[in-house]
Predict the 3D structure of the following.
Amino acid sequence: MKNYTITVNGNVYDVTVEEGASTGTPVAQAAPKAAAPKAPAPKAEAPKTSGTAGSIKVNAPMPGKIVAVKANPGDKVSRGQVILVLEAMKMENDIVAPEDGTVASDNVAVGSSVESGETIATLN
């Protein structure tokens, strides 16, 4: 009989492995153990804003992480111009301006995690 401590998806298990009497096939029994403490996530820099939110909202189309901010508050943007880059499922997705305007606020910063539908920027 052998004892092992195994971590799977952040859950820690104590596992005892016994050899079967006639077949020699191992039989495993797992007992959940207290999860190991996770290291704190790195802090994202503060989002840049111009003080007021714009009337045109740009929402995240899916959950993910912001990897680049291409337009800052005060920048003029054209319809279809990339304003943010969102990484989701290891793919970078360009978030574009829905119409011509001026960036009023970036509600996220590089490294921020966002949820689907969350307002990530506003335009005027």
Notes: The two ends are 69 Å apart (CA to CA). DSSP finds no helices and eleven strands in the chain. The CA atoms of residues 9 and 17 lie 21 Å apart.
